[in-house]
Amino acid sequence: MRIRVLGGDGGESLHSRMTCLLVNETVALDAGSLTQGLSIQEQRQVRSIVLTHSHMDHTNSLPFFIENVFGQTNRPVEIHASAATIYAIRKYLFNNEVWPDFSRLPNHLLPSVRFEELATEVTKVIEGVRFTPIAVDHVVPTFGFLIEQGDSAVLWSSDTGPTQRFWEVANETPHLKAVFIETSFDNSMQRVADISKHLTPQTLASELAKLERQVPIYLHHLKPPYVEQIRQEVASLGRPEVGFVEQGRTYEFG
Ligand SMILES: [Zn+2]
Ligand SMILES: [Zn+2]
User: Fold this and answer.
1) Cα–Cα distance between 88 and 86 in angstroms, integer?
2) Span from the CA of 53 to the centroid of ligand 1 (angstroms)
């Protein structure tokens, strides 16, 4: 299983907050920078998009992506997400005011987009990869995902504050190879992080205490103004297994 992290937040920061991963070239996990991070040719290979939640930094390239691949493929692009996320996307993005409703274009019998509902902890095989949604704790309904192919599994959480089930799943997965989790703010912003349900290095440390496995931890979703401070505070945790996701890098798990 290959996971490529797409960039797209100005280039200077290695740690874009625009979340977008490419799993094996054909599935995107979140769509924060699909069109910025991929050529048109690469975008046409993406058949399915899995969304963690409805926030802009995870969905903003969706309208342009659909436009770029419109009419280029003989089957609709599938957007897999929770009922709450699909509702928000349809109501606020593909609502014929902000952007056309591509689930009815060119017509409802042959749409360009098909929405597929995901349910908590019900595994779905998407382009040969198993995605199991795990409920995490954010200000809108949000999924983390257990992503599995063959003998390897990784856990990905996008936005979340302190959470429980995610770590239970980590501890129940013997073939777990890595955990990806957010750290949005530095410790001085703890109150803002708590209100907006994100993590700081100190709450990350309490989260990691719930993990009973020794696997690499990759941090992502660093808000650009706090990157340097977050890096220093994470370094002072003294945990060598904790690193930072690098934009543009492909992670291989086999
Ligand atoms: Zn969010
Ligand atoms: Zn976010």
Assistant:
1) 5
2) 7
